[in-house]
Specification:
The protein is built from 17 helices and 22 strands. By secondary structure, it is of the alpha+beta class. The protein folds into three domains: about 100 residues, Beta Barrel (OB fold (Dihydrolipoamide Acetyltransferase, E2P)); about 220 residues, 2-Layer Sandwich (BirA Bifunctional Protein, domain 2); about 130 residues, 2-Layer Sandwich (Gyrase A, domain 2). Strand 2 and strand 3 form a beta hairpin. It is globular.
Length: about 600
């Protein structure tokens, strides 16, 4: 490269008129208008027009005729004002252009498989295969810059609050934390494996024992789990841990950081303190521990009322520990068809529910329902009073186990919130979920498992229930929710060995198993471990919501597909038999081992 870049395309303005400038980048578009060649030159900072005229330099003009989209070039010229009738008002510097007298073609390009532009209708698989081209698009460059800016904001914020950024290991010991681990075979220790960390949980607690009062890290984490739009096998989290704190200290720090972050990057001011909901209230009202509060449509509990009716399918549920809940669709009686309701019932069954029924309260005060004949007039009036029914409303009713009914109606609430345009997409609704159960019952394994993780501290008044009534223990835990997405969560941790041993006992770990898996941590607790707590936030989800995306793959430079593959590199892939042998691994999928 003979020409040395002096400026970026997007940083030039009218204040630079008359300057001699050297720019470098990619040819975005090329036009030849009567012998004068115009190109739009693009780099990550923006686009600017460059003019090649034979009057300015005949040789350079002739060379410009060879330019095509995505050629990499360097140009030298004088910055001048564009004629009034050719100003491009769609770009920042559309009123200036470079009148070029030198051109250097640094590299050519094949015709791209899709246009390097925003708002293209291209299959995501093709975009991911040619991710290096997809990342050139202005919208993607804007998102990646936003990711950088958010990371920098978090670093500066936490640094000002006295936190140290400390790295923790990527190759570590496998510990049970909820999801499957990614395992790495050790060549020097045949038959043994490292695990990639699902989170730095144990290490950040060890750092508290080591006296580093305030730690943070923007860290890669790995979980071998089924994927969805807001989940990846490798993801980035903002990890925070503090010593000598209570729950309120952690919540205040993170709340202020997130409120400041949203105001800076979205211009939205959120009133503080933000709303807090107990886990129980969130599930009862919204059927979710990450409810979207940008709209109402709270779930309606009909369990007590239905227990006194002659409709046995619902009447018997209370005695069996189940519930009857409803979702009201306002003013939908003449908009919802019987076919839609039948389809909805089939969907509920596929979700794991026993079924779905409904009441349609027509504008003329008539009522339609497949179970209407089982209810007296007084019972119908009770339903109307409890659900605050008006003529025109539709009531969807589901009776089932508590968890099943809550989950399904919570999902239907979101579906109809979107379908009925009840969600204000310009709003940002932050919410704390608190007072989680410490344990949940695993029906398959018939044992208690940690709701968050096994290092979460119970509330002080519930410690005595660990051995006698674990199901009624509440956790010193909290989740932060934004617009129906769980941004992250954390807890006040257990810092005493005796309490941690009690926790392991409830989870069914023997002393020997606990020592084998967490011995080093238990040992550390015997050397003056301070009270501590923290939280981890999903950076990918934060950026996704700030960028108004609905898929975290659009804010991650090199994401995996929903089948955990990289279409650009074709990872994961097989490895040569020689390496497998060195690692002492045999594949059961190979018919023949060499």
């Amino acid at each position: 490269m003979l020409l040395k870049r002096s400026h970026s395309c997007g940083e030039l303005s009218k204040s630079d008129l008359g300057k001699n400038v050297v720019l470098a980048g990619w040819v975005d578009t090329r036009r030849d208008l009567g012998g004068v060649v115009f190109i739009e030159l693009r780099d990550r900072s923006g686009i600017i027009q460059v003019v090649f005229s034979p009057e300015n330099n005949k040789e350079t003009h002739e060379l410009s005729s060879k330019l095509r989209s995505e050629y990499v070039i360097a140009v030298e010229g004088v910055l001048r004002e564009r004629p009034e009738d050719s100003i491009n008002k769609n770009v920042y510097n559309g009123d200036i252009e470079v009148y070029a007298f030198k051109l250097e073609i640094l590299n050519t390009s094949k015709t791209p498989p899709f246009e390097i532009a925003d708002n293209i209708n291209v299959d995501e698989a093709l975009r991911l295969k040619y991710r290096y081209l997809d990342l050139r698009r202005p919208i993607m460059q804007k998102r990646i810059k936003l990711r950088h800016d958010v990371s920098l904001f978090v670093r500066n914020y936490l640094n000002e609050k006295g936190f140290y950024e400390i790295e923790t290991p990527m190759l570590t010991k496998r510990t049970p934390e909820g999801a499957r681990d990614y395992l790495v075979p050790s060549r020097v220790h045949p038959g043994n494996f490292y695990a990639l960390p699902q989170s730095p949980q144990i290490f950040k607690q060890i750092l508290m024992v080591a006296g580093y009062d305030r730690y943070f890290q923007i860290v890669r984490c790995f979980r071998d789990e089924d994927l969805r739009a807001d989940r990846q096998p490798e993801f980035t989290q903002i990890d925070i841990e503090m010593s000598f704190v209570k729950q309120e200290d952690v919540l205040n720090l993170v709340e202020n950081m997130m409120v400041s972050l949203i105001e800076k990057f979205k211009g939205i001011k959120i009133d503080t303190p933000i709303k807090r909901l107990s886990y129980k209230d969130a599930m009862n009202l919204y059927g979710s521990d990450k409810p979207d509060l940008r709209f109402g449509m709270e779930l309606i509990d009909l369990t007590e009322m239905m227990s006194k009716t002659s409709f046995n399918a619902f009447a018997e549920l209370k005695e069996k520990g189940g519930i009857v809940k409803a979702l009201k669709l306002e003013n939908m009686s003449d908009k919802i068809s019987r076919n839609e309701l039948d389809t909805l019932r089939d969907k509920v069954i596929k979700m794991g529910g026993k079924g779905l029924t409904w009441f349609i309260f027509n504008q003329d005060s008539s009522i339609k329902s497949p179970i209407l004949k089982f209810f007296t007039e007084n019972e119908i009036n009770s339903i109307k009073d409890i659900a605050k029914i008006n003529n025109g409303d539709v009531l969807l009713i589901l009776g089932d186990d508590y968890d099943v009914a809550s989950d399904i109606l919570g999902r239907l609430r979101l579906e109809y919130g979107k379908k009925l345009n009840l969600i204000d997409n310009s709003k940002f609704s932050l919410l704390w979920i608190v007072d989680f159960p410490l344990f949940e019952w695993d029906k398959e394994e018939k044992r208690w498992v940690a709701k968050h993780h096994p290092f979460t501290s119970p509330k002080l008044k519930h410690i005595e229930l660990l051995e006698t009534d674990p199901g009624n223990c509440f956790a010193n835990a909290y989740d932060l929710v934004l617009n129906g997405y769980e941004l992250g969560g954390g807890s006040i941790r257990i810092h005493r060995k005796d309490l941690q041993q009690k926790m392991f006992k409830v989870l069914g770990l023997t002393d020997e198993e606990a020592k084998q898996k967490f011995g080093f941590m238990m040992d550390a607790f015997e050397y003056g471990a301070p009270p501590h707590g923290g939280l981890a936030l999903g950076l990918d989800r934060i950026v996704m919501l700030l960028a108004d995306c609905d898929n975290i793959r659009d804010v991650i430079p090199f994401p995996k597909t929903q089948t955990a593959t990289c279409l650009m590199t074709n990872a994961p892939s097989s490895v040569e038999p020689k390496l497998m042998k060195e690692l002492h691994i045999k594949s059961t999928l190979l018919k023949k081992e060499e």
